[in-house]
Amino acid sequence: MNAWKRIALAALAFFGVGFAPIAVAAPPPMVTSATPASAYAGTTALDVVVTGSNFDRTAKVQYLVTGTTDTGGIAVTKVVYRSNSQLVTTIAVASTADLSKFDIVVTLSDGRKGKGTTLFMVQAPPTYPANRAWHSFTSNGGSDVAASRLYMYGGAGSDWQAVPADLWYYRAYYDQWTLVSPASATRPGKRQWTGLSCGTGVCVMTGGSNGVGLVNETWVYSEATSAWTQAKCARTSPCPTARQMTTMAFDPQRGNHLLFGGRGSQSSGLNDTWTFDAATLKWTLKAPTLKPAERNRAAALNVPGIGVVMHGGQDYYGRAARCDLFVWNGSNWRSIQFDVNQPHPCLHSHSMAWDGQRLVMTGGYVDTSDTPNPVLWRFTFAAGASSGVWSQASSGTCLLIAGTDATIHPGAKMAYDVPTATRVWFGGEENIDGAAVRYGDTVECQ
Questions:
Q1: Taking a C-beta distance cutoff of 8 angstroms, is the pair 233, 217 a contact?
Q2: I want to staple 316 with a disulfide (CB 3.0 to 4.6 A). Which of 52, 153, 261, 269 is the partner?
Q3: Of 199, 180, 220, 225, whose CA–CA distance to 138 is shortest?
Q4: Which fold is adopted by the domain 30-123?
Q5: Would you say the pTM of this structure is higher than 0.85?
């Protein structure tokens, strides 16, 4: 090999070494936030979105008490990779979990690890609902002390925002509220003015507002499993259009949940009738011969041996509170007659109960200026249940259970506990000095 070839090869070797690629270590994952950032002890299934960077599909996640390697009672049951900047973790928080702040640690299969400090917190569950109005409150129809529960969902809190997506039940015999911790990661969100009805072990909730706009969702809560299931809508299985202030009641004779009307986005108002089968998660649009006039904020409940009775409400434009009374027999509506020349209630946003002998109507407003209704009304059906007579009665003996005072405030909602024959009230609101003040009183009346 001549001299110039030796020099050329040496030069190539030199430059080959000098320009060899340098291996760069992959960056570790970074963890920056968690949504939601807290949970109550005893939360059995909650989806938490963990945000950061440099994630991959092998990511494993731990929640550790800040500054320790202790899981503190939080178990991660599932991790779903959405992108290199987002993971969804399903967690179970033990009832005995540490009431503390938690770090979130993400570990990849190649050993890279990242930690976000104090991104999550476990709190003691509340033992009493927050102040609210525009909530849903209804009985599950339980006929004995062990089975009877009065369910309440959502509403609007004192800051004008929808309260947390919370489901509570009240047991009148024990004078006790309980916050439900759903055993499902999928669950409804914030709601106010939603339709809610309960019976035979399930509650059905549909429509309402999330504080920003109308929600077009139907959810079913199972008492047996404490889990929510969302009904799916399709062209072959349609659902009611988005609406709020709808009227709902459970129909035990037919085993379904009845929905009428409500306030949607169209100016013509709604007077459609739907039934929902909780076993199949399907809605059915009915075609009754008689259709009550469109309305929202009406009241309805089942009267044994008669059917689902609906009263009042107001029209889309809020021109007047309605006074009429109808009964649903499973296929058609029928008007119930009474003497309109005698005192009778014209109400919206009110509550109804059946005390075993008469229809009891209370609360709500007598006009669209939201003048509170001060009267407890009773309706006694005549033989054949095609007509009846209205009468007024006293509220009976009322007792404050918890809250700020012993007043049944305007806008409070009532549900009837059958085994104790008790009307239970919660919440309400008033405008004081131009501001909405919302209440959290629990009042029992017998």
A1: no
A2: 269
A3: 199
A4: Immunoglobulin-like (2.60.40)
A5: yes
